[in-house]
Queue: 3 jobs
Job 1
Amino acid sequence: MGMMKIPMIAREPDFMIHGVLKYHAFGQELWISDTTVGAWIITALLLLFGFIASRKLKTVSESDTPGLFQSGLEIAMEALENMAKGTMGANGRRFVNYIGTIFLFILLCNLSGLLGLRAPTADFGVTFLLGLFTFCIVNYQGIKNRGFGHVTSLFQPIPLLFPINLIGEIANPISISLRLFANLLSGVIIMGLWYGMMPWFAKIAIPAALHAYCDLFSGAIQTYVFCMLTMVYINDKME
């Protein structure tokens, strides 16, 4: 009697969004996905970091020698302030807190693939909301600083260009959200295909180089681009 061969089942590439917990609300079936869990983890890490940093800085006196943690915070804050001032001039100081917040959130989301999570920014629902926040701030500043002129500017230089100008205003937040989403999703797909299709010996060292590019390099660049475009759009509506 011959031995029965057990077929080897290859692992399918996996780069989809998966549901973690299903619940019902308002008569609808809703899911908590791995994107939601990843965003919760990153938000919790940011809150914990902010709490620790605040407690640490409150206990430091002017006569104390700055430690490594305090020096790192000061360097990071100075870099964010210089980036905001370099793009927005005198207006940069007003928006450095918002820019710093979305910078840290997007950066940690982009780097979460190094921790085995699916990057929340590889979900268009996340990046679209970030772009929507930018859209709301841009138009709020436009109305605040220009009044009704913010609306009439859509008809300049000639009224015939109103549809094009309106599309341009709407396209700005969509374009920055799609740019961030597409670049992060491409990295998720590349890593999913590699882990799902390559033999075991190709998963030992080579993925480290792929993670360094897809998560670290590309993630940092896309974070900078998103924040830079946000500042440019806001500054365009300022006096």
Note: The CA atoms of residues 176 and 226 lie 6 Å apart.
Job 2
Amino acid sequence: MQQVLFQDLGLKAYKEVWDYQECLLKDSVEIKMKNRELDESQLPLPSKHHLLFVEHPPVYTLGKSGNEENILISEQELFQKSIEYFHINRGGDITFHGPEQLVGYPILDLDCFKTDLGWYLRSIEDVIINTMADYGIVGGRSAGETGVWIDADIKGRERKICAIGIKCSRWVTMHGFAFNVNTDLSYFGNIVPCGIVNKQVTSLQKELGRTIDMKDVKKKVKHYFEEIFQVKLV
């Protein structure tokens, strides 16, 4: 069983955590490259895996192949509303991060798990789907669209509760998921979330009609992350 170093970073600026992820990914890749240079008499260095939890101040992030036309407000309006914006190196389109949204960044060496990005994305979705089930909410998938949805197969009622976007370098992952817990959903009105038109965004709070304890959500997500990825968070 792989061990994963867990950190809850609290409320942190997006760029600071992005840079931190890049450092962790670089360290993991360097370990892999050093191991490839060892001869048979040398023991390999152990892989390092991380899971970061964080909440960000309001920020929009656009994936590397995203369409800037999906940002519906100007730079001046972003400044006036104190919302940051970054064009970043993950997959996916535009999304929002803000307080009371649980953002998870797994930095995993998939050579120690399964070198299959489809499996990895579905596994993250399963973590969130299982967490939602503990609250009595049926989460699911939308055909051809990454993330976790509610009523994805009912036209006009489809609503996304968790966005997922990743980067993978030499089978080491970064970026991750954004799970709307008590998130202020009005921020999504300034973008076309994930570049998907005519579909809603929701949160645990909106679905259940009450404020949700973030500590409880984090505990459940950690539990299902361990269960589904067969790891130990330390």
Note: The chain has a mean pLDDT of 95.
Job 3
Amino acid sequence: MRYETILLDIADGVATITLNRPDKLNSFNDQMHAEIRDALNQAQADKAVRCVILTGAGRGFCAGQDLSDRQMGNDDGAKIDLGDTIERLYNPLVRTIAGLEMPVICAVNGIAAGAGANVALSCDIVLAARSAAFLEPFCKLGLVPDAGGTWSLTHRVGVARAKGLALLGDKLPAEKAEQWGLIWKCVDDDALMDEAKTIAAQLAAGPTVGYGFIKQAIHAAVDNDLDTQLDLERDLQRQAGRTADYREGVSAFLEKRKPVFKGE
């Protein structure tokens, strides 16, 4: 696929996807959805890729849905099916990110609003520039946070803060997002991509299959009771113990050397 709304760079085991509609604050349209999904599928299919970075071009990460794609007259409200948009575009994107068998880093370089904020929060490790902010403006349009927003907010910062963010639609600065545990780390603006690349390099050189199991276990822990989670950990550990990376990790530890993982 020829990309017009994103950039894709693959190097040293890392696929970097850059949302590239800076004149529209990288807001989503149907074409961008198709291109991001294609890029993520490429990353998943390429055995050399072992980590993904998602970021935005220009002064913002993503302003959410491009509302100019939805011209609506006074009598058209009943004819518009926003649930169809979510079912076809946003839900598959969030599920693809969550289901990737490798870590996904989001580097939020400016405002992350609406679905842009929630897609960012669907990633495994979220970094944000100090000048960045997260915003859930759905309430100002009479809508509900989507793209997993109600799930991410509730599970990461709790019911009280989730309701405050969703019902008031106030900006949450990156520093406070870190303090609340909504994101992994807030960094200086000029250090954002260096930090993302450093973490990505570490992950790309790590035991990729094991990382996939970690993602699976943590996602399941949200709904599992303790007994079910203990059984899942047992089953995943059984699989992890049969990987080449586990054997390499043990050998390297015993030989007092740095392991050379191959993601197998």
Note: The chain has a mean pLDDT of 93.
